[in-house]
Design brief:
Elements (H helix, E strand, L loop, with lengths): L1 E6 L6 H11 L2 E5 H8 L5 H10 L12 H10 L1 H29 L4 E5 L14 E6 L2 H12 L3 H9 L4 H7 L2 E4 L4 H11 L8
Parallel strand pairs: 1-3, 1-4, 2-3, 4-5
């Protein structure tokens, strides 16, 4: 079984690529952001740590962490982001390690994927067997984000400015899928890369 990290800039098409892989290969796929959300549920160690760090009032009336309040606290103090990450990232990695072992023991999974824009920054390169970079030209990404998410040019520029450069992505990844053209072309790149693994119609 191969453990693969999937990363890339906003609007590169990571979700669509993973949906294709999920349909046609014997795999398990985890989105790091979704796992992080699970780790922040009431009663977890992460939840307790975040409330201790940011204040009890960061939890809403329903007991869930209010993402907007949390974001405001973090953006007001850049040091807090690093501290929050130190609480969440180890828990996410432990969760994935356990799921990876479960998948290996079951023996019915050939490929195990984790996806996040920040995999490289969070140190996943040391965990995975391979890191894949989903690339798309910036003008293509901007067009997708405006069309599919309704983002303004200003918002897109702000997000892109906080992500790794293309050069950094490439130097930290083992394989690049160019998702700038047709989706069919991207699928061909995936299939060539995964030709040693079981294909499912």
């Amino acid at each position: 079984m191969k453990f693969i990290g999937i990363t890339g800039g906003v609007g590169a098409g990571k979700s669509k690529i993973l949906a294709y892989i999920k349909k046609h290969y014997l795999c398990e796929i985890y989105l790091a952001d979704e796992v992080a959300h699970l780790m922040k549920q009431p009663g977890t160690e992460c939840y307790k740590g975040i409330l201790a760090l940011l204040g009890q009032d960061v939890a809403g009336e329903d007991g869930q962490i209010d993402r907007q309040v949390m974001a405001e606290r973090i953006f007001a103090d850049s040091g807090l982001l690093e501290q929050v990450n130190e609480i969440i990232h180890p828990a996410v990695k432990l969760f994935l390690t356990k799921r990876l072992e479960d998948a290996k023991n079951r023996g019915n999974v050939e490929l195990f994927f984790v996806e996040a824009a920040l995999l490289i920054e969070a140190g996943y390169g040391a965990m995975v067997d391979e890191m894949w970079y989903i690339y798309a030209r910036e003008e293509i990404r901007r067009k997708r984000l405006k069309l599919l998410r309704g983002y303004s040019e200003e918002k897109i520029s702000q997000i892109i400015s906080h992500q790794l450069t293309e050069e950094r992505f490439r130097e930290n990844c083992d394989f690049v899928i160019d998702n700038s053209g047709s989706f069919q072309d991207s699928c061909l790149q995936i299939d060539r890369k995964l030709e040693a693994f079981t294909w499912q119609e």
